[in-house]
Each structure stands twice: as C-alpha cells, then as structure tokens.
Amino acid sequence: MSDYSDNCDREIRGKHSEQYHDWHEDGSCTFGNKDKSYDLCAELIRQRKSGEFVDVVVKVEGREFPCHRAVLAVTPYFHTMFSSNLAESKAKVITLHDIDSGSFSKILDFVYTGEILMAKDDVQDILQAAHMLQAEEVLEYCEKFIENNLCASNCVGVMCLADMYGLCSLKTTARCMVMSKFSVVGRSEEFLSLSTQQLLDLLGDKELRVESEDDILLSVIQWLDHEPESRKAEVSGILPVICLSRVRVSVLKKFEVHPAIQDSPECLAKVTAAKEEHLSGSPRLMADTGREEDGRRPTSRCGISDDLAIIVGGWKAVTQERYSKNPTPPMPFQSIICMDPVREQCYHVTDLPTPIVGCMSVASAGRYLYVTGGRTSSLLHPDPGGSNIPSKQAFRYNFATDTWTRLPDLPRGRAGHGSAIVDGKLFLVGGDTTATLFNMLSMECFDIEAEAWIQPPKVPAIIPSPNLTVIGCGGKLVLIQGLRKKKRFSVHALDVKTQRWNSASRSARARDFDVDFRVTAVNNKVHFCVDMYCYGEVYTYDVDKETPSIEEEKLNTQDVKEELHIVDRVCRRRKRYVNGQKGIINTMSRKNYKLRRAGQTRSLYVVNEHTKLTLPFALFGHGFLATKKIHVGWYCRDQLAKVEKERELQDLLRYYYLSSDDEQYL
C-alpha cells in the first residue's frame, strides 16, 4: 500500500500543484483539487455576464443585474427573501429601493469574486448598501477603509455615521480623535452640523482636550452663527458646560454682544459677571485655596490647568560653546516668564524695570506681583568693578494691564529672601546679610493698602537656613526649614492679627535637608515634602490647631496630591549653595559637576532629562512663584508670546570659570 500511495502522490503532484490527497486509517483516501472552486466561481461569473442559466434579475435605479438566486442567498438579506412566502421569493425580477446602483454592483461583484474596490467618494454609499443587504464582510472593509482615512476634518462626520450604522469600534476611534483634536475639529464644517444634543455630549465629556477654554467658546459661537434663528434658543442649555472663568476677556466680550446672549438676560448676566470678575481682579475663586466659594474645585478641561509658575529674573548659565580660558559672565535674565506646567510651555510676560535681576523674591496678591530686593551679580562671579550688596528695590507689577509701579525702598537690602502676603501685608523673611546679633532671622513688613513699610512683628530666635521656605495659609505666615545637623524639620507660624508665634518640629527620614521644599496650602493646612519622586514622604502642618504638630501624611487627598505634584514639577531641581548662591534649573541630563573653590569641592545638580522640564534654558538665581492664572489676571490679556528653547543650551553645561587646574573636574 505504501508503494502505491507514493506512486499516486508523485503522479498527482506532477499533474497539478493544487491537487491533494489524504489517506485515512481505514485505507480510504480523499482526493481533491483546490482549483475546482476557482473554476466554479469563474464559470458563474461567465454565466452572469453572458446571461446563461441565470434565474433572477435584480433591478436597482433602472439598471438590471442578471444573477443566480443560489449566489445571492449567501447574504442574509436575500436568503431571508427567498426563504419567505413573499412574492419576491418566486419573482423573476426583484426591484430594490433606497440603494445606489453603483454600490450594489460592487457588492454583487464581491459576492461572486470575493473582491471589492472602494474609494473616498463612494465608500459611504457602499456602507449604506452593505448595511441594507446585511453584507457583514463588506461592512468590515468599509469600516477599515474609513478608519484608515480618518482625520480632524472628517472625524465628526465619521462619528455620526458610525453611530447611525452601529459601528461601535469606528465610533470610538472617531470620537477619540474629536476629543484629542477639538481645537481643529471645532473649526470644521462638519462640526457646524451637530445637533444640540450631540454638541452637549461632546462639550460635557471630561476627556475633551483643548489648548484653552477659548477654543470651546469660539467653536460654540460659530455653531450658533450657522443657524442663528433656530439655535439661539439653545444657548441657555449650552452655557453650563462652558467654563466661563477660564475664558479670556477678549473672547467674553465677543460672546457678550452675540445676539443669542443679548436675547437671554440670564445668559447675559453670567457672561458679564465672568468678564467683570476678570477685570476687577476679584474672581469667585478664593485667593488662598483656589476653590469655589462652596469648596469645590473649579471645572477644568482635560489637558488644561489653571496653575501657573512665574519665574522672575536670574542669570542664564554658561554653556559649553561659551566656555573658554577667558569666559564671559553669565547673562542677566531681565524678564519675567511664566510656565503652564500641564502644557509645559513658557511665555514671556514682561521685562524687569531694573538692571538688578538676580536673587529677587516674588509674591502675589490678586493680579499684582510684588518683586523685592535682589543682587547685581552672582556671588559665584561677582562684578569686580561694582558693589554687590543686596538691593532695597521694591516693585509692584499689574499682570492684567502690564504696568509697573515703583514702591518705597526696603528699610534694608535683601537678596535670596522669601516673601508672602497675608492679611493685606507683604512679609519679607531672611536674605539680610548685614551683621545681626547671633546671625538670627530678620523680617520686614509692607502694608499694601497704606503703601508703606511698617514695624515688623517680633521674630523669635530662628537661625537662618539655606532652604527656608515662606508661605501664607489661613491668616498665618508659615516658615518651614530643614535642620541638617539635627535631621529635623522645623515650622514656625505667625498669626498676623495677634502677632503670636507657634512652633513645631519633628525628625524626618529625608536624605538631604538642604534641597528645596515643595510646599502647598490647602484647607488651612500646609503640606510639604523634600522631593516627591526621590523620597515620597509628605508632611502636614495644621495652622488651626492650638498645639500644632508636624504629621506625616499618606497623601490620599487628590487635591493635595495635584498641588504638590505641580510645585514639584516646576521646582524640580537639586539645590546646593556655593557662597550662598542657589543651584540651577536646566534642560540637561543629570550629572554631577564638581566645582573647586578655595580648596572646597561642591556638587551642583541639573534636572534629570527624563523629567518634564520647566525652562527652555539654564537659569539660576531666579525668583519663583506658584500661583493660579485666574488670580494674577492671565485671562485679561490675549495670548502671550511663547519662549522658544535655545538650541545652544541642549549641550551639557560647562559651568563657571574654572582654572586649567580645575578642568579635570568637568
């Protein structure tokens, strides 16, 4: 039997490569030829074209399609028709309505050949015909074709189309594109054809991503203008899903005069109130918590944050290209820039009105920034021809109107100090390099309403530390510092009204007490940590307790977690002091730079390249403030100029004027 089977196998393989056989255990054998199925299809196609042996004609839009009932019955639509008692089951001619003849022709070709050709201009008609005829495979091919050609200009239409025909996967894909590219989608023609309910469904989705709330409102204005008479009555239902407190004043003014708003006193009152809150500088958000009056966090879009980091002055660090045997000093950075920590984009706010730009402190009250003190040059590279004593200068900047006001000089010069505003008073803490008894901490106090420096509160015996952090919370001025030798945290809180101090301290596991603290105030509690990513320990100081203490927190509160992460991302740097000078923020990878001065070796760190960076260039000696856009008047100004990243600072730093003997440390 084996010899016979081998001979048969060779004979069959020799006749045709598509022939096959399969021997069974009982000695029987199945012979076959795959080409027979191809031949059958070819014969049916030939018969269809010639009209031989066809037994039914399908008429669509006046065109006649001769075909075989047995072939048509492979589709559920025709199978049901021919299996029923309807007249069509025996009819020689079947007329189909509400279907495109060209699309039917292509689907009929697919039934006979297994292939279908579709293009952008007919895929929707083919989809409609396939849905009617229940041709599931053709529906799948249409879905793949449409998904492959999905773009921002057609995703709204595709989403509606997929919803109409129950194509869940395609609808999900199209909707995701609408959500992620709404800034472009909202300007498309298809967007204007959305129904009110479809529009509300999109605008109310938490996953909707836009660059700003302005994009939402501008898209709604275009949608209203597309059918002004029928849609103006819908504005009252649409307004609640728009976060008016995140819309710029210029856009609110445009919306305020829109006919749909003018015809609705209730809507007009809301839009006008949002505009006036921005212009008056006293929005409903509470100044110390960033929350609505009822305690809720304000509504915000995915990818949009009201948080803002403000960076004031400093010096640009020297890069490798600038390094030489006779290096030039670092460039003074005579500007204020701000950064959106979610979008990770920096914007130029204004130029400083003074040549003294480094080691200044900045605090905010409403739309005003208070910039105080400073130093003319870095302590690492003092100006040989001038004095570098701390400055007494003080300025107030109106963010909304972009104007500066010179304030009375400080009673004494300060640089590298902390500042905070509590109960209408600006407090400056530390930064006084003049000789004081036992080198204790000193303070200044500025009455904002009177615009005068007043007698500061009495300060307890506090020894200054490099990482002293100042923050206002619940009517109290809170000072936080790390005591490296004692491995403890220390917190001192001043009740501004009673001028009484409370103090607390505790040991901590932090490995480095000289680095910056990340601090935020939420619900009359000060939360702080050393580094959320490296250490993770978060501590809380309750300013309302009569016997306050520093408690370690598990950080289950989402509000606190969000606030601390924002501060951590903006402040993320190691901070080492060389002759009192702070470390650098940069765009470089982390590396240990050695600096030998007067026989001492100090380490300076640059931020890790895998973290999201806050500045587009290397900067040190700058002032920093974490605040809210709605507080400082961000929405009163139109788009600020973006600060582009400097290419020359992509290389590794060559930091600070080392002699040839020191080059081994680089």
Widest sheet: strand ordering: 31-6-9-10-32
For the termini, the CA-CA separation is 84 Å
The overall strand count is 32
CATH class designation of the domain at 34-148: Alpha Beta
Determine the CATH superfamily of the domain at 34-148. Potassium Channel Kv1.1, Chain A
SSE-based structural type: alpha+beta
What fraction strand? Answer: 15-25%
Q: Give a quick account of the main beta sheet: strands, pairing sense, barrel closure.
A: 5 strands, antiparallel
Number of helices: 20
| Rg from Cα | 37 Å
- The name of the CATH topology of the domain at 34-148 is Potassium Channel Kv1.1, Chain A
InterPro entries: BACK, BTB/POZ_dom, Kelch-typ_b-propeller, Kelch_1, SKP1/BTB/POZ_sf
Pfam families: BACK, BTB, Kelch_KLHDC2_KLHL20_DRC7
GO molecular function, one term: ubiquitin-like ligase-substrate adaptor activity
Region (Disordered): 279-300
Explain what you see.
Among the domains are: 2-33, no CATH class; 34-148, Potassium Channel Kv1.1, Chain A (2-Layer Sandwich). Helices cover 28% and strands 23% of the residues. Helix 5 crosses helix 6 (123-133) and helix 8 runs antiparallel to helix 9. The chain is elongated and about 110 Å long. The model is unreliable at 4-16, 285-298, 320-325, 572-613 and 648-666 (pLDDT under 50). GO terms for molecular function: ubiquitin-like ligase-substrate adaptor activity.
